[in-house]
Amino acid sequence: MAEQVNLADQHQWEAGSDEELKIPEAFITQLRHEIVVLGLKKEFTFRCSKYKKVRGGAWRFNHVIIDTSKLNPKGDVELKRVTYHPEIVLVNVPFMTIPAPEEIIPGEAN
Q: I want to staple 94 with a disulfide (CB 3.0 to 4.6 A). Which of 19, 38, 77, 98 is the partner?
């Protein structure tokens, strides 16, 4: 029987650097867009299923997955961590969108 999931709640998954990170399939199968947020000190990326412009010039992103893995000073993954947010909104922040790669690899998105 498939695991019950609630896409309306925020979730987080963690695994050690040598462990497999297990994310329920329902959270990652519809991620069609990779969003690169520009204008910060460092580029920031996340993936979402859909996005649209809303009143006031803001942008709403639905079913968002963010790689928040912890890296050591060498850039090696110390802790694999992925968070899910049902929705986020960006206001007055430049970004670009590209088609999302097939698979999420923790620690690769910066």
A: 38
- Report the candidate in 16, 12, 11 with the shortest Cα–Cα distance to residue 79: 16
How many separate domains does the chain show? 1
Please state whether beta strands 33-37 and 50-53 pair in parallel, antiparallel, or not at all (unpaired). Answer: unpaired
Verdict on whether the full-model pTM lies above 0.85? no
In tens, the pLDDT along 20-37 reads: 999 998 898 889 999 999
Residue 105 lies in a domain: no
* Bridge-based pairing state of the strands 44-48 and 33-37: antiparallel
Cβ atoms of 51 and 33 within 8 Å: the answer is yes
Q: Is residue 5 part of a domain?
A: no
- Under DSSP, the state recorded for 2 is P
Domain boundaries, position 46: 11-99
What b/e readout covers 12-22, taking b as 16+ CB neighbours within 10 angstroms? ebebeeeeebe
Cα–Cα distance for residue pair 35/66, rounded to 1 Å: 10
